[in-house]
Amino acid sequence: MATTPFCLRLLNLQRRPRKRANFEFGHSAMTSSLAKVGFGVFKPKDSRAPRTGALLAPAVGLLLIWMIVPLTMTLWFSFQRYNLQNPLISGFAGFNNYKFLLLYKTLWISIGNTLVLVGSVLSLTIVFGVLFAVVFDEAFFGRNIARLLVIAPFFVMPTVSALIWKNLLMHPVNGLFAWITRSLGLGVVDWFAQAPMISIIIIVAWQWIPFASLILMTAMQSLDREQMEAAYLDGARGLSMFWFITLPHLFRPISVVVMIETIFLLAVFAEILVTTSGGPGNATTTLTYLIYLKALLQWDVGGASAAGVIAIILANVVAAFLIRTVARNLAD
Amino acid sequence: MAQLSLRNVAKSFGTVNIIKDLNLEIADRELCVFVGPSGCGKSTLLRMIAGLEEITSGDLMIDGERVNDVPPDVRGLAMVFQSYALYPHMTVRDNMAFALRLAGVSRQERYARIDKVADLLQLRPYLDRRPKALSGGQRQRVAIGRAIVREPKVFLFDEPLSNLDAALRVQTRIELARLHERLNATMIYVTHDQVEAMTLADKIVVLRDGHIEQVGSPLELYHHPCNRFVAGFIGSPKMNFCSVKVKAPSSSGVSIDLPGGASMVAPVAATRLKEGEPLILGVRPEHMKVIGPAGDGPITFSGEVMVVERLGGQTFLYVQATPEDLFIIAVDGDSLVKVHDRVALGFAPKECHLFDHGGTALEQLARHPLAA
Ligand SMILES: Nc1ncnc2c1ncn2[C@@H]1O[C@H](COP(=O)(O)OP(=O)(O)OP(=O)(O)O)[C@@H](O)[C@H]1O
Ligand SMILES: [Mg+2]
Questions:
Q1: B361 to each of A15, B269, B356, B368, how far by Cα in Å?
Q2: In this complex, is the C-beta atom of A243 within 8 Å of any C-beta atom belonging to chain B?
């Protein structure tokens, strides 16, 4: 729910990435694209640009319904008193759902958690993605196998990978990490109790590093070899080559990785449910998880919808921020 | 400024020998051009000099110092690539400043040097643009400028003009010639283009299959090619060849039988030749003349004109002199010869080249005055 409008923004961006004017939100962007496809009244009559509105209408209409219906329903519910446990409580709630939420400390904590999670995972995936892309660009024995292994975690379902990390790796009694530290006489870390957020970040990063690596490895192959040779002749080596030639070349694919990952990271859920269930306390409750708590544990549909609307706003704020910085890179 | 020598240099990729035991001296301030058919190893040789390819064996000396194991940026070379290889995310100024910046030259000095080079190449208005916003010719100048700011001992060019259109290529060629004169630098230049090679070079190196066929000044190669390959490679259109037989060798030349039945005396060193030995005669299209309709004059060949190509200033005739030999003759653009005319062809004996059956040229008795 939270990501739907964001996806639409992205679609919009991909269609005409060079136009900065398109990145305003909500209806203005929508109407301006509608005007472009022929619904507008501003269009001069021109036999060489016939009106295609009628032909596009089914597709545009479907997409509009696709977006509008859930959005409207969410908005509607967010102003209702609506709890599945007690059908007698009903009727218009005004801003009470919002008021209650905004005064509720957990909301702010969960927003903070969401930002921490998304930010850390993004940084980790970019750093490791770039590292792998650069390392795997060099020829060495067994490179293809190594590449395959780096990509592999991406194909593991989130639930499964969370279970593996929880029970086989990070478990304080049975886990591999505990066994290693215990063998070294260092004592045991109970990951999900002592560092819950870090644990989740590690798991999610492990799943998303392959994606960044894949995109960046592919990008490395389009780096002009003559350009690298020219830089080599100019005296660039190792770090300076990386800093002045490789990294600028990877800037654009990195932007793409950041955008796509953000969409999915804002919606991370299975990993939290399987490992910490948002705890201990609310240490790993993200906005997505909070909505789940409200809707399916407290059966408070009104409150959950209000949280959903807040999530949409958050997603749009993040999107606005990202698109403004990223789009500038892409257009360059 | 620098003097370069290659001693028994060889290069192999795995088991394939690309450059074979090559010896070459390039003098200070010389512009040396590598030519040869595609795949003969010109680029490889240039990249070995630049330090981009390892030298498998032999010595590369710059100013008498062995530099095989010296890293490229310390060798004091600058290379201009065919694709320009400009850094797309840097402005023209930063492109040119890059090497200096890595070498730790102060910002002030960097900019002063760039300004000087920008004036030389008329790049001033473009200094703050990215390469994407430049035309092909401007990018080429930036690539050359990037090489010049480093003040290298040797400039290396790998087919630098091949991406430019014909007019711009001529203009840039002339600029390069002037630049060479002004910079007084040693330059090595790889090209496919005959005209570039002939006009720019102090010395041309003709390569084939990784070894040197001949080294010499452009006119030396043109007038005194040492074998049939060089004779065919230098000059456009290609030299005409036909098989002939030795009639009588003498000290003032050799008398030979031509395929059409005529005979002539060629002024070449002929002491080792035996009567009846097969040779190959080579005459350049521009040295053959149409001396009239078939039947009169000091005819060497006669035949039917099969094709006439009129270029305006010049006309190329394709004449079937014998069933095996189709000769190209370059005549004046105003020539009235038509297709299917029968013509008689002649050429001055001093313009002919003779090769033994191995392809080695027989030495001419008189050197051409311009190729002494
Ligand atoms: N890395 C490599 N591994 C194996 N063979 C190579 C490699 N680089 C070049 N060669 C071979 O070396 C030979 C010479 O290549 P080179 O690029 O020097 O030719 P060239 O004379 O520059 O040709 P062109 O005029 O087409 O540019 C070619 O046959 C090529 O296939
Ligand atoms: Mg080449």
A1: 67, 10, 7, 15
A2: no
> Can you name the CATH fold of A96-330?
MetI-like fold (1.10.3720)
> Domains (ranges, CATH) in chain B?
4-232 (3.40.50.300), 289-346 (2.40.50.140)
Nearest CA, atom 25, ligand 1:
B38
Q: Which amino acid is at B160?
A: P
Which segments of chain A belong to CATH 1.10.3720.10?
A: 96-330
Give residue-wise pLDDT tens across range A105-150: 888 888 899 999 999 999 999 999 999 999 988 888 888 898 889 8
Rounded Cα–Cα distance for residues B51 and B53 (Å): 5
Q: Which residue of B has its CA nearest to A329?
A: B89
**Residue B9: closest CA among A210, B19, B17:** B19
Write out pLDDT tens, residues B195-207. 899 999 999 999 9
Q: In degrees rounded to 5, what are phi and psi of residue B9?
A: -75, 135
Give the residue-averaged pLDDT of A275-289: 84
Q: Are B31 and B189 in contact (CB under 8 A)?
A: yes
Which of B48, B70, B74, B89 would you mutate first to test chain A, the one with the most A CBs within 10 A?
A: B89
The three-state secondary structure class of B240 is strand
Q: How far apart are CA B309 and CA B317, in angstroms?
A: 6
Q: Which two tokens stand for residue B327?
A: 């000769």
